[in-house]
Design goal:
This protein is α/β, with parallel strands linked by helices. The strands form 3 sheets. The protein has an 8-stranded parallel beta barrel, surrounded by 6 helices. A 3-stranded antiparallel β-sheet has the order 8-9-10, with helices on one face.
Length: 581
C-alpha cells in the first residue's frame, strides 16, 4: 500500500510550501475510519463532506483571484468580452515574462493542490469502505467528488497552464544557446597541478572500466556521474555536472545517476540539494541559499558553482549521451513531493522521443509521484489515450483494461481531431495530442505557431518508456513518503508497485549487510524474478568496491548497483602519478 499520507506531507513541504492553498488533512480524516462505535460512519461522512466543501471553496477562490489578476492587468488592452486564451496572451504581452512566470507557477500550485485533494478524498472513501464493507459510502460520496469543481476544474487549469507555457515561449530547452564555462584564474603552478591530478584520475577511471567484464559493466551506475564525494573539483568534475557525465560515458561507463530539480520558469536542471549553497562558488551569495524551485534559469546562470560552470539542463546532458554512444544512459531521480518536476520530465520525453533511449530508468522515493508519472507518460504517448487532455481523471475498468476519456475543452473547443473551421470562433483551441502543444486564438486575429504536430507514424517511437522504479530505505524513514523494507521480508514491495493504471517496474533498495549472505542473496534473486532490482548505499558508510558490486550482480541478480567509484574500488588498480603515465 502506498503511503499517501507521507506523499501529502512531502507536497506540503515541497511544492505547496509557503502557499495559502488548502490541503486535505488526510491523516486526521483517517481517524474516524478506524474508530469504533455506531456513529463512526456519520462522523467520517461529516468530516469528508466538510473537507470537500473547503477544497471546492479554496479552489474556486484561488482560480477566480488568478483570472481576476489576468483581466485586471490587461483591462485596457484586451478585446471586449475576450475569451480566456486571448486574455492570457494579452496579459503576457502587458506584464512581461517575469510576472508571467509567477502566474504560471501559481497555476501549477493550484492544480497540484486540486489534484492532491481530489485523490486524498477518493482514497479516504476507498479506505472507509475497505474497513466497513457493510456500510459503504462510495455510492453517496464519490459522485459528489466527481461532480465537484475541485475535480472537474483540473482540466481547465491544465489547459490554462499549457497555454501560458506556450505564450511564454516555452520552446525546446536546448535551443536557448550555448553557455561558455566560466574560468577561474590560478597561478601556473597550481593550474598545472590540477591538470596533472585530473589526468591521473581519468587514467585510473579508464583502467578500472577496462578491468570490469563486459557482461557486468552495464550493471554499474556512476552515482551523480564521475565526481568526488567531498565536493572537490581539482581532481574530478563536480557532481551532477555535464563534465561528470561526459567523462564517465567517454571512459566506458554505461549508466550514470542524476538528480533533477525544476526552476521557477519550469526548466529541468541537475541538482541534488534543494539549493546550491553547498556547491556555489560564492556560498554567501543570497541566491545560493534560495531553493532551485524559486529561481529562474537565468538566475542560476548568474550563480556559478565551485567548478566555474553553471548547473546543466537535463536536456543538455541527454543530448551529450545521445551524441557519445548508444550505451550512454541516465538514471534519473525525482525528489519526493516534486510532481512538477515529474510532469516536466514527462513533457520533455514526449517532445523528444529520440532522447528516451538515453534514459535507462526513472526513480523516486515518492510512490505517488511515480505512479502519476506512469499515468502521464501513458496518456501522453498513446494515440487514443493521449487524444484528450491529460487532465482527464475518469478511468473505466473493463477487466484488466483501463480506458482514459478525453476531458471537455474548457476554452470552448473540442479536441483537435474533432475541430472544424467554425470552431476557430469559439476561443483558444488546444491540440490535445502531445500534451497541448499547437494552438490558435479566436476570431482569426492572432495565431501562435508552436511545435508542429508529429506525424502519426512517429508515435511508435514514444511508446517505449524507460522503466519506473521505487526507491526504498532500510533504516527509519527520514521523510514521510519513504518506504522501509528489509531484505529478509520483501513481501510489501508488490503492493507498493501495483496500481490499476499501470504498475511500476521495480524497486531500488538501500544496501544492507545481510544482502551479502546466502539468505539475503536468495531473497533478492526471488524478488528479481518478478521485478527489476537496484541497490544504493551511503558513501563512506556502506561498502563500495568491485567485490560487493560483483556479488550483488552475479549472486543476487541485481540489475543496477550505485557506486561513487572511490579510488579503492578495484584492487590492484591504483592512481598512478602522471610522471609514470
Amino acid at each position: 500500500m502506498v503511503n499517501f499520507g507521507g506523499h501529502l506531507k512531502a507536497v506540503r513541504e515541497g511544492e505547496s510550501k509557503g502557499t495559502d492553498l488548502y490541503i486535505v488533512p488526510y491523516n486526521d480524516l483517517k481517524e474516524p475510519v478506524f474508530a469504533q462505535g455506531t456513529d463512526s460512519r456519520a462522523v467520517f461522512d461529516t468530516c469528508w463532506r466538510g473537507a470537500l466543501a473547503l477544497s471546492n471553496a479554496d479552489f474556486t477562490a484561488a482560480v477566480e483571484a488568478l483570472f481576476t489578476s489576468i483581466f485586471e492587468a490587461d483591462a485596457d488592452a484586451a478585446p471586449r468580452g475576450a475569451p480566456l486564451g486571448t486574455a492570457m496572451k494579452v496579459y503576457v504581452d502587458v506584464v512581461g515574462p517575469d510576472e508571467g512566470q509567477d502566474t504560471l507557477q501559481r497555476m501549477v500550485q493550484i492544480h497540484t493542490a486540486a489534484l492532491t485533494n481530489s485523490e486524498a478524498l477518493r482514497k479516504l472513501v476507498k479506505k472507509h469502505d475497505k474497513y466497513h464493507p457493510t456500510q459503504k459510502l462510495s455510492v453517496s460520496l464519490l459522485p459528489k467528488l466527481y461532480a465537484s469543481v475541485v475535480f472537474s476544474g483540473q482540466g481547465m487549469v491544465e489547459e490554462a497552464i499549457a497555454a501560458m507555457r506556450a505564450f511564454l515561449n516555452d520552446e525546446d530547452e536546448g535551443d536557448r544557446g550555448t553557455f561558455l564555462p566560466m574560468k577561474r584564474m590560478d597561478s601556473e603552478t597550481a593550474h598545472n597541478k590540477v591538470v596533472e591530478s585530473r589526468v591521473e584520475e581519468l587514467d585510473w577511471l579508464k583502467r578500472v572500466v577496462a578491468s570490469i567484464p563486459e557482461t557486468l559493466i552495464h550493471n554499474l551506475v556512476a552515482h551523480r556521474g564521475f565526481h568526488h564525494v567531498k565536493d572537490r573539483n581539482d581532481k574530478r568534475p563536480l557532481e551532477n555536472s555535464l563534465a561528470a557525465y561526459e567523462t564517465a560515458w567517454t571512459s566506458g561507463i554505461h549508466l550514470c545517476e542524476c538528480d533533477i530539480a525544476i526552476t521557477r520558469d519550469e526548466k529541468l536542471v541537475l541538482a541534488h540539494d534543494a539549493d546550491f549553497k553547498r556547491l556555489a562558488l560564492d556560498s554567501k551569495s543570497p541566491t545560493s541559499g534560495i531553493n532551485v524551485s524559486d529561481l529562474t534559469f537565468r538566475e542560476l546562470i548568474s550563480m556559478p558553482l565551485t567548478s566555474g560552470n553553471r548547473p546543466p539542463l537535463l536536456i543538455d546532458v541527454l543530448r551529450s549521451a545521445h551524441a557519445i554512444s548508444n550505451n550512454a544512459k541516465l538514471i534519473i531521480e525525482i525528489k519526493p513531493g516534486n510532481s512538477a518536476a515529474a510532469s516536466a520530465l514527462s513533457r520533455l520525453l514526449l517532445r523528444h522521443p529520440d532522447l528516451t533511449r538515453c534514459v535507462a530508468m526513472i526513480m523516486s522515493f515518492d510512490a505517488v509521484t511515480m505512479h502519476r508519472l506512469r499515468t502521464e507518460l501513458t496518456a501522453g504517448s498513446h494515440p487514443l489515450l493521449g487524444s484528450g487532455s491529460t487532465s482527464s481523471r475518469m478511468n473505466l475498468s473493463f477487466g484488466s483494461q483501463h480506458c482514459r476519456f478525453a476531458s471537455f475543452d474548457h476554452f470552448g473547443t473540442l479536441p483537435n481531431h474533432h475541430r472544424t473551421h467554425s470552431d476557430q470562433q469559439l476561443g483558444l483551441s488546444l491540440s490535445q495530442n502531445n500534451l497541448g502543444v499547437g494552438m490558435s486564438l479566436s476570431q482569426n486575429t492572432l495565431e501562435v505557431p508552436l511545435v508542429p504536430q508529429e506525424p502519426p507514424q512517429q508515435i511508435e517511437h514514444i511508446l517505449s518508456f524507460p522503466p519506473l522504479m521505487l526507491l526504498t530505505v532500510a533504516q527509519k524513514p527520514k521523510r514521510p513518503c519513504e518506504m522501509k523494507v528489509g531484505v529478509h521480508d520483501l513481501s510489501p514491495i508488490d503492493s507498493w508497485l501495483s496500481n490499476p493504471n499501470g504498475c511500476l517496474d521495480g524497486v531500488y533498495l538501500q544496501f544492507q549487510r545481510d544482502m551479502m549472505t546466502p539468505e539475503g542473496s536468495r531473497s533478492l534473486r526471488e524478488l528479481s524474478e518478478r521485478v527489476d532490482v537496484g541497490v544504493w548505499g551511503f558513501a563512506g558508510l556502506d561498502p563500495d568496491d568491485f567485490d560487493t558490486f560483483h556479488w550483488l550482480v552475479k549472486d543476487c541478480n541485481v540489475k543496477f548497483v550505485n557506486t561513487d567509484l572511490p579510488n579503492n574500488f578495484r584492487k590492484g588498480v591504483i592512481v598512478r602519478s602522471s610522471t609514470s603515465l
